[in-house]
């Protein structure tokens, strides 16, 4: 049995990764349709060693496909995901549009695959935010063993999370500044991103946190099935192209030694421990966070200031595990469960 798939946002950073991951994994794809806006209709995108013609989303008939992978922004999903779902297509949506609806599963296959039960109610499954996905993959085994009460997290997030405009802005500013030229007025970010760190991702909320930070609160609680877990995030954009890093400081109910945590993580699905207490013995965005599927964990150590505290450094490819790969793993899980 094969599945016909539409990739919505196929010309974007995540859409391109979806197409290459679909081609490289053994997902049973039939026809693949590359959809984007009218602007890029008629162009071409790579699918493995083939080229696909880009079609206009607005003209597409979703009854031709069984799976739709959406990554073209929340407003596009708001309009087209319900139409696709009504046409019988299962939508896996990478935007924040439906994530907080009670009847929409929000799924990281290593953490909460059973949340897929009942997805047929809406025919839409939400893919979580990139910074939340890599964090919960690493925290799930620790929560099972020692019950996480509180998560303090600071993120160091790559510009590819903003899509192609973020990647282009960092590249252009870097080139200009290294050539002694002034930069153009920033457009993807409110301040210069090259050689800088911006404590601002997504829009500000009434409580003074940003929406990216609140996503980490809401989504961690929903995915871990722990409405009581306390999350205190600071989300920061840094001048890295690919790969998000996170400094995570946990407060547990039971003490957990760094040694035990390392063993639990070494056995956890989707996790690779790289923790050598030596020069370079830890994961970084450029070395592990690009074109790799795993969530990498290092710097595992007991908090010297707290009796049940534990610290971690978590790195993963935000475009793959944080978006495209997780969406395709959701599709694979659906197929394994008999879609
Ligand atoms: P397009 O290239 O035609 O604008 P990124 O986040 O990397 O910028 O990618 C966004 C993706 O979403 C692109 O593929 C973009 O297509 C697509 N997209 C944006 N707006 C729309 C729209 N209104 N209809 C269809 N696709 C859209």
Describe this structure in words.
Belongs to the aspartate-semialdehyde dehydrogenase family. The strands form two sheets. The chain has a seven-stranded mixed β-sheet with strand order 3-4-2-1-5-6-7, with helices on both faces. It has a six-stranded mixed β-sheet with strand order 9-8-10-13-12-11. Helix 1 (13-24) crosses helix 8 (320-336) and helix 3 (130-146) crosses helix 5 (211-224). It contains eight helices and 13 strands. By secondary structure, the protein is α/β, with parallel strands linked by helices. It folds into two domains: 3-127 and 323-336, Rossmann fold (3-Layer(aba) Sandwich); 131-318, Dihydrodipicolinate Reductase, domain 2, CATH 3.30.360.10. The mean pLDDT is 98. The protein has helices at 13-24, 74-86, 130-146, 164-178, 211-224, 258-267, 285-288, 320-336; strands at 3-8, 29-36, 44-47, 50-56, 67-70, 90-93, 124-126, 148-156, 230-234, 244-252, 271-273, 295-302, 309-316. Helix 1 links the parallel strand 1 and strand 2. The structure holds adenosine-2'-5'-diphosphate (A2P). Adenosine-2'-5'-diphosphate (A2P) binds next to helix 1 and helix 4.
């Amino acid at each position: 049995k094969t599945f016909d798939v539409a990739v919505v946002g196929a010309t974007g950073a995540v859409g391109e990764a979806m197409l290459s991951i679909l081609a490289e994994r053994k997902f049973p794809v039939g026809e693949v349709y590359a959809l984007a806006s009218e602007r890029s209709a008629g162009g071409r995108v790579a699918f493995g060693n083939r080229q696909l013609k880009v079609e206009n989303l607005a003209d597409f008939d979703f009854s031709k496909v069984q799976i739709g992978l959406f990554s073209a922004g929340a407003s596009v999903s708001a309009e087209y995901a319900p139409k696709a779902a009504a046409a019988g297509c299962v939508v896996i949506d990478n935007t924040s549009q439906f994530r907080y609806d009670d009847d929409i599963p929000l799924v990281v296959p290593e953490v909460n695959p059973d949340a897929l039960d009942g997805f047929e109610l809406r025919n839409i499954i939400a893919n979580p935010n990139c910074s939340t996905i890599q964090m919960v993959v690493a925290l799930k085994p620790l929560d099972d063993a020692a019950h996480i009460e509180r998560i303090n997290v600071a993120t160091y997030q790559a510009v590819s999370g903003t899509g192609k405009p973020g990647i282009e802005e960092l590249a252009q500013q870097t080139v200009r500044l290294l050539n002694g030229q002034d930069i153009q007025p920033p457009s993807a970010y409110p301040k210069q991103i090259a050689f800088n760190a911006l404590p601002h991702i997504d829009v500000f909320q009434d409580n003074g946190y940003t929406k990216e930070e609140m996503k980490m609160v809401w989504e961690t609680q929903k995915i871990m099935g722990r409405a009581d877990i306390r999350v205190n995030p600071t989300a920061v954009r840094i001048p890295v192209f690919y790969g998000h890093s996170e400094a995570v400081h946990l407060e547990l109910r039971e003490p957990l030694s760094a040694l035990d945590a390392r063993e639990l993580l070494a056995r956890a699905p989707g996790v690779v421990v790289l923790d050598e207490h030596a020069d370079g013995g830890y994961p970084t965005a450029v070395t592990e966070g690009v074109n790799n599927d795993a969530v990498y964990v290092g710097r595992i150590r007991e908090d010297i200031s707290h009796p049940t505290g534990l610290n971690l450094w978590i790195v993963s490819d935000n475009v793959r595990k944080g978006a495209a790969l997780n969406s395709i793993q959701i599709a694979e899980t659906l197929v394994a469960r008999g879609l």
